[in-house]
Amino acid sequence: MGSPLYPPFGSGLQPAVGSGFGSLLGSGNFSNNLLSSLVSPPSQAPALSLKWIYVRARFIAFMDNLAITKAQLEDGNTKQGGVRACLNRHYYGVSSETANSFLMGSWGKLTRVRPSRDVDILFILPDSVYWQYQARTGNRQSALLQEIKNVLLGTYSQTSMRGDGQVVVIPFNQTPIEVAPGFRCTNGNILVCDTNDGGRYITSTAEAEEQSLSVSDTYCVGNTRALARMMKQWQREQNVSLKSFLLERLAVEFLTTWPNNQRDHFWYDWMIRDFFAYLIGRANNYIFMPGTSEAIALGNDWLFQAQRAYKHAVTACEHEEANYGILAGQEWQAIFGSAIPLSS
């Protein structure tokens, strides 16, 4: 019986195999291999112990290699806590490192990959600040970000504003901190700044993204965050243009209907292979963001890289089944680099 948390494909979701899928890949064996890769394994496989003997150890080690170190965790927590305390002192008269704010991005969703690029903070400002800036003319959002920058400059002299006009950045050497100021609405939504095109407020999806991913990860016994982290490593290693939050959303979508979504590391080779097949089928489509239902185009700039990764994954899975450990490792490293062990 299917879980009520995971509806069948619909509402903009696309299955990995369907109309127009073969045309993205071309004809021939590659398309046939893609289709066969999505066939579910038998429910009972008494001879499993004789095959795939390296898979579990390889992927346990891979996930360990992706985890940030204790020193990196402590550094990030110290710095983000200090920034939140600085803003709380100015706007609320308290020195709390947690109040009126929360972590977003990979730190908020626990999808960090070593080394972490940055820590994202959403800081909720008092309502009075919103009305203060509403009384102004011009680009209110730009002026508000400038105020946040000036507040932080009192403690962090290297503070700057990033070019996309949505955050203030403290570019620490090891773990940069990015701060997005926001306002909590009476309906529970959070408005954040966008200084582009004269300035405006947009609705943040940060809380809805974290909740959606957490529900999926709980149901899939940790596999959603694991898959997201592995795909972020692929993104980083191969310079893939897909943004991290899109890879997280795609991981949630894929695991909604993948039949082995509650299996352990022993099935991660198939999970990666089948995810790339699914990803290829999502080219030129859209992701609908939780909380706002905003449609974000996925494009296809990354399609060739996904097809290439899929081919390597198919071959790696074949080698894993035959217990050709180093040959499988070579194929995995062509996707993920040295973070995944060559042998196990």
TrEMBL record:
<keyword id="KW-0051">Antiviral defense</keyword>
<dbReference type="GO" id="GO:0051607">
    <property type="term" value="P:defense response to virus"/>
</dbReference>
<dbReference type="GO" id="GO:0016779">
    <property type="term" value="F:nucleotidyltransferase activity"/>
</dbReference>
<dbReference type="Pfam" id="PF18144">
    <property type="entry name" value="SMODS"/>
</dbReference>
<dbReference type="InterPro" id="IPR043519">
    <property type="entry name" value="NT_sf"/>
</dbReference>
<dbReference type="InterPro" id="IPR006116">
    <property type="entry name" value="NT_2-5OAS_ClassI-CCAase"/>
</dbReference>
<protein>
    <recommendedName>
        <fullName>Nucleotidyltransferase</fullName>
    </recommendedName>
</protein>
